[in-house]
Amino acid sequence: MSTKKDNFTAKDKKFMKLALDLARARKGLTGDNPSVGCVIVKKGEIISIGQTGYGGRPHAEHNAISNCFEDPKDSKMYITLEPCNHYGKTPPCTKNIIKNQIREVYYPIEDIDLKVKGKSSLILENSNIKAKKGLLKKEALNLYNSYYINRKKKLPYVIGKIALSKNKIIYSDTTKRITNEMSDKLTHYLRFKSDGILITSKTLNIDNPKLNCRLEGYTKLSPKRIILDKNLKINLKSYIVKSIKNKNTIIFYNSNNKTKKNFLTKKGAILIKQSTHGHKNFDLKIILKKLYMKGIKNLLVEGGDQLTKSFLQKVMFNEFYMFKSSKNLLKGNKYVNFTSLDILNTKYNRHKINFKLATDRITIYKN
């Protein structure tokens, strides 16, 4: 039964929800290509599912057709994004759909890629395949928000994260742990879904972090480590420096320290000399543009108070996660307060989600 509002049945929505779940599961792991989910249905029953492959290939439609346990002729296909219709590194998905004589194709939204946008329905309908768009459009737009930002602005989708105690301390020399183990797992999940993780050399030298994903089985999918280090103050005995390999570390600098430059280059770090253009710090917009050109589509910022404040003031976070412990921290000899709550609540207050992980409260702000 369909509703008058959108002409899609409850079953159509159920199958598209499954396709969207498949796409969400692989989001952030498909390189330059968007993560797409695909469900193939025949006589009301699912005969196959598919997702975009790791790194972006094969496409979801190809995988779903290949996975079919019966002939997909006269079936319905539910895809989370308009299928591609041009030759690139793979043949067009529309060609594969036509070849396998799929009867109807449902997708929520058009691709933003101008090589694809709006052309697939015409190609399919010229082969007597019904193409219906608009199914769960709102959910799909939310899913592909980061992809749209990548393609439109040529910038990474930026997520910020900070952990603070009940009394708003983000660092104290009295303790290393602020939040609980469940919050830590969410942090590692965010790392797993990111191409790069950004901090300053100041944070590196104080915390000596690993910046990797420590969810069991996913360590190899850790993001690239990106360090802002204007004066090359990075501690050469730090974990990050010792674990440089396979170009997994990018350092932005503006220093003539040849000894450190040579050492880091020999270790295998990617060094990018960046002017401050007469300012105290790097222009973060330029940093983001250069990271996008280096293949960083999803960036996690785990900086200290000052770097976080700089991103917040310029409204450069697309999402921001605030992990708040239920415990107060002792201030000790050295401590840092989080000083950007007012900025956060002023500039990011339109879309806010609150939930609890055991005793910690998580607030997600969306720009």
Walkthrough of the structure:
- This protein is of the alpha/beta class.
- 30% of the residues lie in helices and 23% in strands.
- It contains 13 helices and 16 strands.
- It has a 9-stranded mixed beta sheet with strand order 11-10-9-8-12-6-13-16-15, with helices on both faces. A 5-stranded mixed beta sheet has the order 2-1-3-4-5. It has a two-stranded antiparallel ribbon with strand order 7-14.
- The two termini are 37 Å apart.
- 40% of the residues are buried.
- The mean pLDDT is 95.
Number of E-state strands: 16
Number of helical regions? 13
Element-by-element helix/strand order: HEEHEHEHEHHEEHEHEHEHEHEHEEHEE
Secondary structural class = alpha/beta
Major β-sheet annotation: 9 strands, mixed
Q: Which descriptor suits the 3D outline?
A: elongated
Q: Which strand order spans the largest sheet, edge to edge or round the barrel?
A: 11-10-9-8-12-6-13-16-15
Oligomeric form: single chain
Helix content: 25-40%
Average pLDDT value? 95
Radius of gyration: 23 Å
Q: What is the percentage of strand-forming residues?
A: 15-25%
Report the span from N to C terminus: 37 Å
Extract low-pLDDT stretches. none
